[in-house]
Amino acid sequence: MFGTCEKLMTHFAVILTAFLVSQPLLLLLICGPPTTPHGDTTYYSPMLVHASAADEAVGKWARQFGDELYLLAQKITKSQQIKEKYKEYNARVELKNGTELIQSITAKVSKMLARKKDAVRCIQEKAEIVNENFEYNQTYAESNFTYYSSKYSTFNGNSSEQLEPNEAEYAYMYRDMQLNPDTHFYNISVDTEHSSVHVPSNVWDRQATVLKTIQWSEQLDEVFRQNYQSDPALSWQYFGSDTGILRHYPAAQWTDTRANKLDADTYDCRKRSWYIETATCSKDIVILLDHSGSMTGHRNHVAKFTIRSILDTFSNNDFFTIFKYSENVSGIVPCFKDALVQATPENIETFNSAIAELPDPSDYANLTQAYEHAFKILQNYYINRRCNETSTCNQAIMLVTDGVAGNTTEVFERYNWGNGENGTSRMNVRIFTYLLGKEVTKVREIQWMACLNRGYYSHVQTLDEVHEEVLKYVDVIATPLVLQNVEHPPTWTHAFTDKTYDPMNSTERRPRLMIAVGVPAFDRSYRHENSTNRRARLLGVAGTDVPVEDIDKLTLPYKLGVNGYSFVVSNNGYVLLHPDLRPIGVSRNSISLSIAAFIIEHLFQSNGKMNPNYNSIDFTEVEHLFEDQSPREPGESILNIRRAMVHHEAKEFKDISVKFHYDKMRRVSEEKQDYFFAPLPNTPFTLGIVMPSDYGKTWIKVGDQVDRNKHMKVNISEFFVGENWKVHPDWVYCKYHYLEGHEFKTPEAELREFLEKMMKLDFKFPEQYEDEPNRNSSANLNCGRKTLDDDAYYCNTELVHLLIFDAKVTNFSYGVWKFDNEQERQLIERFGATLRFVATMSGLTRWQFIYGEVEVDTDQEFGDYHTTAIDETWYKSAILQHHQDNTESFVYSVKHYNDPLEDSDLKVTASHAIFPRDGGKEAPACVVGFQFSHARMWDRFFNITAVDNCNNCLPICTDDDIDCVVIDNNAYIVVGQNVNTTGKFFGEFHGDVMAAMVQKGIFQSIEVYDFQALCKVESTSPSDGHSLLHPLKVLGLAWKWLIAHLFWHYQRIQWWVDGAPFMEYLDNIEDEYVAVDSNSQSAAKPKEDGDDGDAIFQEPLPEPVYKPCDMRSTLYSLQPESLVGINDYVEVPSTRPFLVKKIPNSNLVLVVVNVLMPSRSVRLTTEPMRITSYESEYPCYKLNMSFYERRRIEECYTKDDEEELFTYCGNASRLGLTVQLLPLTIILMFYLTRCFMRI
How do residues 1163-1207 score in pLDDT, each as one tens digit? Predict the structure, then answer.
């Protein structure tokens, strides 16, 4: 019995001992680490290992430095007082419903877009009616008619383009303009009472059909004015005719964007995306290029230019490929293989470059094999897209050749004329043939191919004919659309830059991106019984531009909150609107890791050029999900989100882990986001919003502040006294509909005017677009909508009330600064603090100078550099710090070393987020902060760390044995012994230590990718001296000069024979041709002979060339919890030992490195590196994007039973001209050759 009791007592003693030993650990696990009086956490090792003396010494330095900074921050920001004011004024914290919010936003945006579409439909209706009833008087038109010409009308004695001397007699045709700068139209001088007409250089405005169009379209001015007066937010309105003329409103002189003013004005509305897409819908095109031995010399050059012109008519909704054929058929770009690729700018440029580098043609032509190959490719897409079920597929083959040698009937019978039996099919593929050259045979065969396959035959003899002949396919494809004669389906384009926007010289905050909506107009005259023209013709396209910025302003950014944003995605998955979309290129030198810091200041300079891919940036290229660990390999989550948006679905995806980067992609954090999106009705677009999964669910809700303050007899303007405050420049609080006549120097001046109006009893808060009954009925098109008064305005009621509330909360704290006591003064002076600020969710930013405002040389101060409140880096950082740390800590940062100074002295910016609580919930309300001297901070830090806290167990920081560095939560140096390291990445100086901290989990390394970068292409050409001294170089230039003059004289003779003006387009594929028609007002001025001779020996330095490239940046994020348990030197093989301590109440970490110990040479960087690990070259490594899901444009009309009755397929009427010119050409070539040989 006693034995049993003894055993029980022994077991009990063991259990009791284990419990007593483990009790502190259990308490630690259950209750968490204890906190300091300031709320900072004191960490203990889970194993209760005592800290070393050196570790404790570093900990004392960190605590003293952190406590002083925290006391300073509390004193100067008065954060607790501001937080109490939110409670005093009854700020309510409410939940945000993402589903309801996206519905509200899409309703607002849809209403705005519908108004733009209505305006265009009114233009289209008017155009059809006027054209159908217009009686053209040719005598009057040619002798008395005048119009406003965008190019030749004068304003203050100057015109956009000068008439040629022989055209001076027609100067009477162009009325003088009366223009005035208009704020709404980007301060361009315009005439809002009239429209003006642009005529491209290859179109003669005195030709009968062109002159008729200019004359009748003048009646569109009435609709233009009515549209603008009922919706003053309308941008440019226009009507593009199938003759090539563009009537645009308001009238303005044409903006000349040509680099060389002697070049032709090649702008043609028929090649713009809004015209082409409206006329032809989506297209699948296979181009076949004859590359047989007969296609040499001039024919080869014309063929390349023909294909180049065809590609210019494609848009993002088109898919195409090009094959060259001779004895065999092969792809132009091998990696594209047998796939149709999307007609993005980069894919088009890839094909153009590949065609320019083709070897000389050779062998015979096997056209049957080429057709067979093209039909098989189109058949795959025909089946996969179920074209036989939907009848909405436009498929075509375009043949570029100098003749055909065989019969291809069998191929057409198998694929295009079959009945489904014996393996045949009826794909209804259109055939367009371009016959090149003057001496051609078997014309009927190639014409027959087009006519029996619903296509068009063109005979192209010279370069000047290419443009017009290529455009004829557009009218052919548009024929079924015209014949149905009922629906006018609107077409929305992808993003493009405004014609008047100059990225090199613009001072605008953001690039001027537009989308356009176009509606087709039909020429119905072919249906008249007495009509002499039985051709179904597209009259033109009516359109208007919609600034993408106008969409952004309606997405309620204040309600999305900090680190939330909106975006718009097209049916192709391309982004029109996204905070990470960068249309203007940022040049990046191609660098390797060993020279990462070489000329680093040039890495982030804007080159002022538009990124060639800016309107085809895919959603997967701007959203960085955490699951995407390899470049160009998006994970399933992002593809699912993209798939739903492309297919116009309304969905939500929550708690998606993302790589949230900010501060120019230099800082990163792993965050969770919620995605909500819904379609924009009657458009190909889907609008989405993103909100942080945690703090993005709540926001501050306030009541009617205007009426409340009126009732209390408080003038709300008193909350906005002084000049040291700003409102977000991109947000709309209240605004006049007509900007012209209501100009304000600043957004603050505009707000002040409306604040005064709000105090009046009759003030109302109208919306920009009021609801209309029966809005969705297409039969209720209102082209006589009520016009607005000159002083009409609109407001965002909710945002205005929130702004007034924020101004009231912060106003008391930003009067005249007073020190509470002498200790406070000494503390602030010790750190050299000079300025304090607050920024709120409503976009309000206030700042105050502690010692009074100081005049600076640049006349710029804090509020001029930091105007965007929740979009500022220090605002984002403070919110993230609160979310991650959940304490009263402050975020400290210094400018990145590559950024310019805001002041003569380097400043440290500290910020802290205030989250008021209500009903158990908290929401981000504002961020307070201050700026102080970096030099004073540096002095104070090294004063603190010069104290020995452990009896020589550790050198002090002023010794050379250790290196003491204070880094922020992204490992950028805030304080270092070498001041020149400030703002630089810690790993550049202690790469081994940084790598060890990543290995130990103290920092997390996160790779982010930049798929919008531009890399400078280094020139490989020899020196100028070498080129000029080499005799073969001189001979080559002379021969180039001879060829240019040969074509110049030849085209002059051709003009004399034709008796009509023409235009020779510049072609940069091989040779340069200059517009030479001296008898046409639209042709470019020919060069003088002497100029050409001098040009042989004058080769100017080429402009820098940039090409798209992909970049990778490895960024770092602090993991504070990993510091728990580190109580001694961190030792990793081949790494210098180091001590690391978190500085309390901050985002800072103190790292002490023993520099006497040897280490491996490691140098890390956060600078972007070009990705060179792809298996294929650019752009082949992006080929997989061509197979992402896309939604085809609906409402396409591709065939009509009556098509053969109202169309034609081309002719060979110009063959006779070839025979006439042949002898003359031979004589001219003989004469010029003899002249050259005599030199």
Answer: 999 999 999 989 888 888 888 888 899 988 877 888 888 888 887
Alpha-carbon gap, residue 334 to 585, rounded angstroms: 28
Burial of 604 (0-12, 13-18, 19+ CB in 10 A): middle
In 1137-1148, which positions are buried (b, 16+ CB within 10 angstroms) versus exposed (e)?
bbbbbbbbbbbb
For tokens 């400078």, what's the residue?
1016
Between vectors from CA 1138 to CA 1136 and to CA 1142, what angle results, nearest 5°?
150
Select the more confidently predicted residue: 1074 or 789: 789
pLDDT digit string, tens, across residues 957-975: 999 999 999 999 999 999 9
Could you tell me if residue 694 is left (phi over 0), alpha (psi between -120 and 50 degrees) or otherwise beta?
Answer: alpha
Query: Going by DSSP bridges, is the β-strand pair 430-436/456-460 parallel, antiparallel, or unpaired?
Result: parallel
Q: What pairing do the DSSP bridges indicate for beta strands 584-588 and 1003-1017?
A: parallel
Report the DSSP pairing between strands 284-290 and 395-401: parallel
Tokens in use for 980? 């020149």
Q: What is the mean pLDDT of residues 403-409?
A: 85
Taking CA 32 as the corner, what is the angle to CA 966 and CA 876, rounded to the nearest 5 degrees? 45
Q: SS3 for 247-304, per residue?
A: EEECECCCCCCCCCCCCCCCCCHHHCHHHHHHHHCCCEEEEEEECCCCCCCHHHHHHH
| Pairwise CA distance, residues 769 & 773, whole Å | 13
Q: Give the per-residue pLDDT at 417.
A: 92
597 pLDDT band, cuts 50/70/90, is: very low
CA distance linking residue 468 with residue 201, whole number of Å: 12
User: How many whole angstroms separate alpha carbon 593 and alpha carbon 198?
Assistant: 52
Region 748-761 average pLDDT: 95
State how far the Cα of 327 lies from the Cα of 711, in Å rounded to an integer. Answer: 89
Q: How confident is the model at residue 594 (pLDDT cuts 50, 70, 90)?
A: very low
Calpha distance 35→891 (Å, rounded)? 19
- Give the residues across from 517 on adjacent strands: 492, 544
Q: Rounded to whole angstroms, how far apart are CA atoms 759 and 750?
A: 15
Q: How far apart are CA 909 and CA 931, in angstroms?
A: 5
3-class SS of residue 403: coil
The CA–CA distances, whole Å, from 1239 to 240, 542, 1048, 1077, 1095 equal 50, 56, 19, 27, 17
Q: Which of 844, 847, 851 is nearest to 861 (CA)?
A: 847
Q: Using only the alpha carbons of the chain, give its radius of gyration.
A: 36
**Mean pLDDT, residues 760-771 taken together:** 90
Contact 653, 640 (CB under 8 A): yes
Helix axes 1089-1096, 1031-1058, angle to 10 degrees: 150
What angle separates helix 345-356 from helix 298-311, to the nearest 10 degrees? 180
1198's tokens: 């591709």
- The answer to whether the beta carbons of residues 968 and 1148 sit under 8 Å apart is yes
Dist. CA 1186–CA 340, nearest whole Å: 8
pLDDT of residue 1046: 54
Tell me how crowded residue 637 is: count the other CB atoms within 10 A of its CB: 18
Predicted model pTM: 0.86
Of 776, 772, 554, 770, whose CA–CA distance to 682 is shortest? 776
How far apart CA 829 and CA 843 sit, in angstroms, is 30
Give the 3-state secondary structure of residue 746: coil
SS (H, E, C) 348-397: HHHHHHHHHCCCCCCCCCCHHHHHHHHHHHHHHHHHHCCHHHHCCCCEEE
Report which of 479, 481, 478, 480 is spatially closest to residue 489, judged by C-alpha positions.
Answer: 481
| More confident: 566 or 1095 | 566
Phi, psi of 610 (to 5 degrees): -70, 135
Instruction: Assess contact for 1218 and 438: CB atoms under 8 A.
Output: yes
Task: Give Cα separations from 518 to 514, 521, 526, 655 (angstroms).
Answer: 13, 10, 23, 39
